[in-house]
Amino acid sequence: MLMLTLCVTYADRRVCAVEGSIMELPCTYSYPSDEKVEHTFWYYVRPKENPQDLSLEEQFAGRVEYIGDKERNCALRIRDLRKKSDAHTYRFRFHTDGPWGQYTGDPGVSLSVTDLKVMMSNTYRGSIILSCSSTCTLPNNPTYIWYRNGQPIFNQNTNGLYMHDSSEDAGSYSCAVRGYDELRSPAVCKILTLNSHHSVSISLAASMR
Known about the structure:
Blueprint (H helix, E strand, L loop, with lengths): L6 E4 L3 E5 L4 E3 L1 E4 L6 E8 L19 E3 L9 E3 L4 H4 L2 E8 L5 E3 L4 E6 L2 E6 L5 E6 L10 E5 L2 E2 L7 E4 L7 E7 L10 E7 L5 E7 L3
Parallel strand pairs: 2-10
Antiparallel strand pairs: 1-4, 3-7, 5-8, 6-7, 8-9, 8-10, 11-12, 12-15, 13-14, 13-16, 16-17, 17-18
């Protein structure tokens, strides 16, 4: 008796990536050995709409690449990720010449796209910590690059930057994920203000640069 084994396996169910970066969605699939794969494609889920091949979608033109094959690998690569249009659940579908015809891998991969933002928190000693914040959890424990006045700050590779209440630290700050150095957060300026008690307070403001 021939066993019917149609299956799609995704390496991750949820993924997060920085806007403008490249994301690969690893995937494998299987089918009966006496069948031949005739067609493969990825699509994103839209309620009450039939699946549409990503490679034929205008919004993905020149940005998606099927890097799998017609045997076992069904990986997808998406370039220049866009926060507003690319955050979807993606699924892989393949067609064979067998009696079942087609198979879709449910539930798919949920892709979140984030930008980076510099956030400030105060310490109990009056200093501040700048954090390179994202709206979803980036994979593989990424390292970060911090910039002051457009120049990298050496020996600072975590998403937090500790700063003293000193005029030496004044300047414009931004951050990026290593490997995507050009995809920096909007810059913010550290401002020192002398208040009525003749003590210094620290604040951040959006950079005009």
